[in-house]
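Hi all, a correction to my earlier message: I attached the wrong file for Fe2OG dioxygenase domain-containing protein. Here's the right sequence:
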Amino acid sequence: MDIAGAGDSFAGSSAPYDRLQELKAFDKSKAGVKGLVDSGVTKLSRLFIRPPEDLAAGDQFSGETSGAQFRIPVIDLGSVTGDRSGTVAGVRRAAETVGFFQVVNHGIPLEVLEEALAAARGFHEVAQEVKGEYYSREVMRKVKYGSNFDLYQSKYANWRDTLFCVMGPEPLDPQELPSVCREITMEYSRQVQVLGRVLFGLLSEALGLSTDHLETMDCAKGHSILFHYYPACPEPDLTMGTTRHSDPDFLTILLQDHIGGLQVLSHNGWVDVPPVPGALVVNIGDLLQLISNDRFKSVEHRVLANHIGPRVSVACFFTLHLYPTRRVYGPIKELLSEDNPPVYRETSLKDFIAYYDNKGLDGNSALSHFMIRR
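and the right structure:
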């Protein structure tokens, strides 16, 4: 099957639609969404089209956002070495209510941010024969490129390709990284790890715990870097850049470019997270909501597809991922009381990630599976 022509072949065709065959053809091409764009598609393949029930459910696009009523908080980290009570209070409010905030004066130089975004674009735009060598769905592979980790589980595919790099806790051999982004990936990893420890310290204090509490729980021990690439989409209203989801980690630090498209689900509906020059977006992950016993909120978010592109972003997921550890995670004992019993049962990271990956981005939180039923 010619995947390049798949987008047009189903429009107006009476031939039966074999979704699995098209999935396999798309996967086998190793070209991702970028490959479809390069082939000149003008219509979306059915693989990417949202089901009618999703479109009819009202979970649609920018017309329903309520940005005028609500803004994602911006927190200045410039004073974390002095009196940080105001910063801790700001982090607490954001983590307990919105689950998202942006940080400025975070210590990572602007040129490092710019080089990381350039590297994300650079990798996804290298020759296909070079990029294809990294294409893989092997679960344990540390550096892999692909499109839609849940391709065979999801109701529709997202308009996005990703280079996924496990940077810790075991140090990654730089030679495993593509040469086009090798040096900056290692540097950005070092810089964002330092920022992660600062943020976990603030979040620990926001919970009324010692500054190093979350770090002693290995929340900052491992991290992965994901280079996302969202090509310009011919029919953005029919698909998504990334389906609504929450993150399966403790904390995410996101670097986004100037195009925008990231939205957070709030009590006011979908709210834009506008790009702020030099800022980084921080959001609470599912595992931090679990161990904080629902104090902190892991909020659903999504990325819109767009006629304009490519949009690139660099996400850092703080989690041990599939690194072998005997540690189990449940609500922090110091936060529990007779009036505040545990909401979740304990789980290993392996079991949590396995459930999340098998479920895929289906619009439902993985946390509900680990709730204690009363």
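Sorry for the mix-up. The two ends are 52 Å apart (CA to CA).
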